[in-house]
Amino acid sequence: MSDQGPDLDRRRFLAVSAAGILGLAVGYLTGRATAPVERVVETKTETSTVTETNTVTSTVTRATTETATRTVTETLRVEPRYERVKIANIRDLAEGKPLNTSYMGKPIIVLKLGEPAVGGVGPDGDIVAFSTFCTHMGGSLFYDEKNKALVCPLHYSIFDPAREGMTVVGHATEYLPQVLLEYDEATGDIYAVGFNRLVYGVHSNL
Ligand code: FES
Questions:
Q1: How far is the CA of 140 from the centre of ligand 1 (A)?
Q2: Helix, strand or coil for residue 30?
Q3: Count of H helices and E strands in the chain?
Q4: Domain enclosing residue 27, as ranges
Q5: Tell me, what DSSP letter sits at residue 35?
Q6: Count of domains for the chain
């Protein structure tokens, strides 16, 4: 115990308490000054929408100019046709006197019948001409003066020269091809100008 007694202890106690309080105060202030500061963090929500629109407009213009020079070579095809061919003169003919000749490469017979005939020419309309190929199987016909008929020696078909070559008797079922004739009154010439039917044995008369 000191001489001052309880007074001295009390002063020490007060001094120590004051120092403590002061320390606390300083500590508080210091701590406050250094304490981390809470900050309000601003939260930003960014929404970004990117819309990209690409519009491509393409216009293509093509201008083409063509200049063509074309040479066309045409070959004219001459269609075959019947020829006009003199086959006799009226002075060469007489009744019962047939004339065998050819027209367009085919054998024919020219007749003066002494009576008008279908397709006949001349002053009396009695001159006719026919293919000599039988329409049955191509036999060579002869003229039967007595009956004024064209006769096939193979199977004896008979044709009437006054009636356009009609079959009278026999196997043949088709008319004889008749030669189309023209007559020149000035000269008496007789011209063949065509056939009226297909000649036996060919695909074309031309
Ligand atoms: S070939 Fe003429 S009738 Fe047969």
A1: 8
A2: helix
A3: 1, 10
A4: 1-32
A5: S
A6: 2
